Write a sequence for this structure.
């Protein structure tokens, strides 16, 4: 079933909406921070021009498609993006998020993500996955709060950053089939294993 691309969602504290061309400066504030960037799969943005390219290529270019979920996370009081939540449009249905560090540890990512996941579920998706660096367990806690289940870990030579990272793969099956596991990363990376007490 296909649904409108990135429909606006409101939560108690947030407005989740499409990015616009006017959001380049706000996106630059998020993605130029080296600490925020530590666990993101790209290098910190160095200029507003880079932010404009990122905005076009990673967000705006997708909004003409149906059932796309690439959200700017904004506080209700000013509607300015302080983060993002998105779902990759590929077979992994990989769910991801990022947030300015001034807003960490306030439950904002969880609040935004729960609302988007509910919309994804209602759109008829069977499952979503998400991965986090083992050195970033707080991201894993967000995944657990979304109802996701740890499946396995694998070591990837992370690109473009070029160093090995142990990723933990989580999955949420909307149809209740707890046995379904997206196995691609397990098959792709020889160094894979299941950790205890994740």
């Amino acid at each position: 079933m296909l649904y409108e691309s990135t429909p606006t969602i409101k939560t108690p504290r947030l407005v989740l909406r499409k990015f616009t061309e006017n959001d380049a400066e706000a996106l630059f504030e998020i993605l130029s921070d080296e600490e925020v960037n530590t666990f993101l799969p790209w290098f910190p943005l160095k200029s507003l021009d880079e932010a404009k390219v990122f905005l076009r290529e990673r967000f705006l270019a997708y909004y003409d498609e149906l059932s796309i979920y690439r959200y700017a996370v904004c506080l209700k009081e000013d509607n300015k993006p302080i983060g993002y939540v998105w779902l990759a449009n590929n077979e992994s249905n990989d769910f991801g998020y990022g947030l300015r560090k001034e807003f960490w540890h306030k439950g904002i990512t969880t609040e935004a993500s729960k609302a988007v996941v509910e919309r994804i579920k209602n759109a008829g998706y069977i499952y979503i996955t998400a991965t986090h660096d083992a050195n970033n367990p707080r991201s894993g806690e967000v995944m657990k709060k979304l109802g996701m289940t740890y499946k396995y870990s694998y070591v990837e030579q992370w690109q473009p950053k070029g160093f090995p990272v142990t990723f933990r793969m989580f999955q949420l099956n909307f149809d209740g089939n707890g046995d379904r596991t997206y196995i691609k990363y397990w098959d792709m990376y020889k160094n894979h294993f299941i950790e205890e007490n994740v």
Observations:
- The first helix runs from residue 24 to 31.
- The radius of gyration is 16 Å.
- Strands lie at 9-10, 14-17, 70-75, 81-87, 95-99, 127-133, 149-158, 163-173, 192-193.
